[in-house]
Amino acid sequence: MEEGERSPLLSQETAGQKPLSVHSPPTAGCLDPAPWEDQVDAWGCSCCPPETKCQALRGTPGKGPAPSLSTGSSCIKYLIFFSNFLFSLLGLLALAIGLWGLAVKGSLGSDLGGPLPVDPMLGLTLGGLVVSTVSLAGCLGALCENSCLLHGFSGGILAFLVLEALAGALVVALWGPLQDSLEHTLRVAIVHYQDDADLRFLLDQVQLGLKCCGAASYQDWQQNLYFNCSSPGVQACSLPASCCIDPREDGASVNDQCGFGVLGLDADAAQRVVHLEGCG
């Protein structure tokens, strides 16, 4: 074939392509990003396509290769990653504890329909599942720069903030009825104190944390079948150890007998041993 003449097949293959120059960036092995860009436009998010490296090498026409992340952007990226990684571990830990608690209670044949409307272990399980899911979305989204996961993470955080604001507004608006409901709930918990282990644990934690005893006063424990002074049991006229001012009595373990016989004392003698104020 004479010089200057082109093969028809070669002409068809090179038609529509720009000639390569010594300044052209390497594009060997790069696929056409158009199909992926169509998919990105359809879903509205970027999911780390395999052609990212090629697009970075090509850069924007007329502007050269795409710049890399700045130091500040990298710091923010890894800060989001590590903070969400920590919350993911905490959420998974809560999920594991909740599942373990449900399994143990199921093996012991515990009654899930007791005085509490919701099993605390079930609430812990659901809370751990939600926290771990949202945190993992933020963790992986920051690491992979995946806008789909980051949008999901932002939506979860926004929903949490909205629910928190609504809960705060309801507490302020319904403060009076909530106080009455809380006092009624405490009285019911006192009556069923010995019937449910979860209820007993929650009420003990409330009394220890708030340094209080009973709903309105320590005399509310007279409503309990085991603690009232007419009971034939050994706990008659007594109070739980969580009512005591110093339940450990400077020891390593809780003294369960620190409240024995306190309901039979007058207020002056009782106030040296237990908290007289109620939690309601």
TrEMBL record:
GO terms for cellular component: plasma membrane. It is found in: Cell membrane. It is a multi-pass membrane protein. Residues 1-24 are annotated as: Disordered. The chain crosses the membrane at residues 78-102, 122-144, 156-178. It comes from the Eukaryota. GO terms for molecular function: enzyme binding. Keywords: Cell membrane, Disulfide bond, Glycoprotein, Membrane, Transmembrane, Transmembrane helix. PROSITE patterns: TM4_1. InterPro entries: Tetraspanin/Peripherin, Tetraspanin_CS, Tetraspanin_EC2_sf. Belongs to the tetraspanin (TM4SF) family. Part of TspanC8 subgroup, composed of 6 members that interact with the transmembrane metalloprotease ADAM10. This interaction is required for ADAM10 exit from the endoplasmic reticulum and for enzymatic maturation and trafficking to the cell surface as well as substrate specificity. Different TspanC8/ADAM10 complexes have distinct substrates. Interacts with ADAM10. This is Tetraspanin-10. It comes from Macaca fascicularis (Crab-eating macaque).
